[in-house]
Amino acid sequence: MRFAVRLSVVGLVFVTMFSVVGLRLWFIQVAQGPAIAEASTEQAWIQRTVQAPRGDIYDRNGALLVTSRIVPAVIVDRTFIQNSEQGEHVVTRLAALLSMPRSELAGMYEKAGINGRFEVGTVSPEVAYRINESLDELPGVQIVKVPERVYINGPTAAHVIGHLGLPDASDLEERPELDPSVRVGKLGIERFYDELLQGVPGQEEYRVRRGQIIDTRPAVAPVQGSSVVLSIDLATQEVVEMALEQGIQLSNEVKDQDRANGREVFSETQRGAVVVLDVNTFEVVAAASYPDFDPQLFVAGIDADTFQALNDARAFNNLATNGLYPPASTFKAIMYAVDMEERLPFPEGIEGIDPDNRQVHCDGTLELPQLADGTEQVKRDWYVGSNYGWRDLSGALE
Description:
Structural class: alpha+beta
Strand content: 15-25%
Oligomer: single chain
Shape: elongated
Number of domains: 3
CATH superfamily of the largest domain: Penicillin-binding protein 2a (Domain 2)
Radius of gyration: 36 Å
Number of helices: 14
């Protein structure tokens, strides 16, 4: 009897002990689980990449053409958003604070994926302040500092300098190490020297509470990209671009006059290019192409309508390097050198050619075959002066 009582007491003690332990485990895992998980998250340091500022670009005299500045940017990290309802709220509220179409932000949100992290874009200090004031109701939204490209002279030398853009499939295939969210050079010097200009990203550690960053500390500082010095002279470039644009306008004014006088005008002058070389070193001192564009449009992301308008105008085509042109009068110097070296024979028995004195008679006109309707084609020299009559090659080149 006593043994049975003792066994019952021991059993009761064990049951009580296991009940207490079980209750405690339930309390820790269920009742206090979220609080403990949040506390552990607050204690854990999370690493993220810090984008390096791109290197500066200078002209031949040290004038700064392109640089980078540190500005606030809005980041959305979906790992801190618990459900679709919360996500809908974040998109709606954040779009209102940014004064941007909700559909545009929603598209970025969906594209990032469930555990994705994406940059909405850079913002002014005033907008960053308003968002900071609302962070308690915006889980996953963060304000961070990022480098932003600044093209100091706007469209000046745009085709030479180029612009930035997010890497496309071909960029990522060629350079798998690229971060798809970091802009790279897409044209000109920005593209050709992209790896040199990009620099080395750094690392930063942070802790979060309820989806918001509560503390940060640097781990590895980013290294700014190397600077590039061009052979371009900014002052010359500005003069050349102005002269090119004025020349195109003048050409169209002349065509308007010809049209008013009943002359046939086939098309308007829409494009042109100018290249200035140093005759001693053959360095490119200026290179202009028209129409042009403003690289600053691509920094925050160019809108589709503006891009399409520029693309339709072929503004991204650098006519100074990609255009194909007949050599025209520049070839005369080559023929002159060949004639001086080889003394090429002159044809005989042709009116207007004196083979003995190696001269040709010129009256400033060029007669071409008649058109199908019988219209005569006579092209007149643009130069009105006395440089006509019997001329040898040396005299014609004066």
